[in-house]
Specification:
It is a single chain. The chain is mainly α and about 350 residues long. The protein has two domains: about 160 residues, no CATH class; about 170 residues, no CATH class. Helix content is about 55%, strand content about 0%. The chain is built from 20 helices and two strands. Strands 1-2 form a two-stranded antiparallel ribbon. Helix 1 packs across helix 2, helix 3 packs antiparallel against helix 4 and helix 13 packs across helix 18. It is elongated. The chain starts with a helix and ends with a helix. About 20% of the residues are buried. The C terminus is likely disordered.
Length: about 350
């Protein structure tokens, strides 16, 4: 950890002992002691760290439960309060492993006193033991207990300390989520989806698999999360007082209406499909589902279709922002590809 520049800075500000406590204690130490005592910058840093710590699932704890810290652990409480007994900590009591014998069973009061050469109130010890025991019940079938012969790496920082660059590990940890986002589940319920079940993973990755253009990626992200600044959304958040379509001025300007429903733009998709057919002799159909979410599933042959859809949507949205109402007439299909020959070659190979 000494090579991590932010830790060096934090240690210079707060001292070596404080950094050791950060490694020895649980998540509640960050929320109860670290964050309130620091400025906005460090509050943000440690709020992020806390988010990483709380993202670990039960399987992670199950495999490493002996190294779970006892002090300031939000899951080990007595009387609704986290634990910290200074005299025990000074004697080296830090982890659940310190309360276990060689077979993984909880130590008796006498054995614990003998192990750490400390006098402990039996009522206090039983309270702590009860809290630990309750927490361990979460890990049924913990498996064979193997005590480490070397000091444990601090549990919450193990994925970070063992790697020179930990940003990728943190990113993956924060994105381990199998829940369906509310925005996508709404697409499943929306009548425009025709009841077709959407593959969440594909819907969110289709853009990144198709192009590295950050402008296009940001556009599709806002469409998927229903936060694209169309008039319906802007009125909803009190930015504008009207929600009529910029192009037709007849209906409410929703995401679906702008890209699919507006009569002034519907011909654009038909013309694009015809242009591709005349150029390549390939028939590509554009519909409500693939215009909004992409051509799914993610197959190699669908990449060019998604490319065309994404850049056409970017053109439409650009016209919307500029209030250019005649975009269906001035759309240059060759702006996506430099020549019709290149378009023909790409389609011939991949479809």
């Amino acid at each position: 950890m000494g090579n991590k520049s932010w830790v060096d800075i934090f240690e210079a500000i707060n001292g070596h002992d404080f950094v050791h406590k950060l490694l020895d204690f649980g998540d509640a130490f960050i929320s109860e002691c670290v964050i309130p005592e620091n400025n906005i910058l460090w509050q943000d840093v440690f709020n992020s760290m806390l988010h990483v710590i709380k993202s670990f699932d039960k399987n992670f704890y199950k495999e490493t439960y002996p190294s779970i810290p006892v002090w300031y652990n939000s899951n080990i409480r007595v009387g609704m309060k986290t634990l910290f007994i200074k005299s025990w900590y000074k004697k080296g009591v830090r982890l659940i492993d310190d309360f276990l014998d060689d077979k993984g069973n909880l130590l008796s009061h006498n054995l614990f006193q003998h192990k750490f050469d400390i006098q402990v109130c039996i009522l206090q010890y039983n309270s702590v033991l009860s809290a630990i025991s309750t927490h361990l019940k979460l890990f049924e079938n913990k498996g064979v207990f193997n005590r480490a012969f070397s000091p444990y790496i601090p549990l919450f920082y193990k994925p970070l300390i063992l790697q020179t660059k930990c940003t990728k590990s943190v990113y993956k940890q924060l994105n381990v989520n199998h829940d369906i986002p509310t925005s996508v589940s709404k697409w499943n319920l929306d009548p425009v989806a025709y009841g077709i079940e959407i593959c969440v993973k594909d819907a969110f990755t289709v853009c990144f698999k198709t192009t590295k253009d950050s402008i296009i990626q940001w556009l599709q992200y806002r469409i998927l999360h229903r936060i694209l600044p169309v008039n319906y959304y802007l009125k909803k958040i009190n930015v504008v007082s009207f929600d009529c379509c910029t192009f037709c001025n007849d209906e409410v300007e929703t995401i679906q209406h702008v890209f699919i429903g507006c009569e002034k733009l519907s011909i654009l998709w038909s013309n694009l499909s015809m242009h591709i057919y005349k150029t390549t002799s390939k028939r590509i159909g554009f519909n409500v589902l693939n215009i909004l979410l992409g051509e799914l599933p993610l197959l190699k042959g669908n990449r060019i279709v998604n490319f065309l859809i994404l850049y056409t949507k970017q053109y439409i949205f650009s016209c919307l922002k500029k209030k250019k109402t005649n975009c269906q007439d001035s759309w240059n299909y060759c702006s996506i590809y430099t020549t019709n020959t290149r378009l023909k070659n790409v389609l011939h190979i991949r479809i």
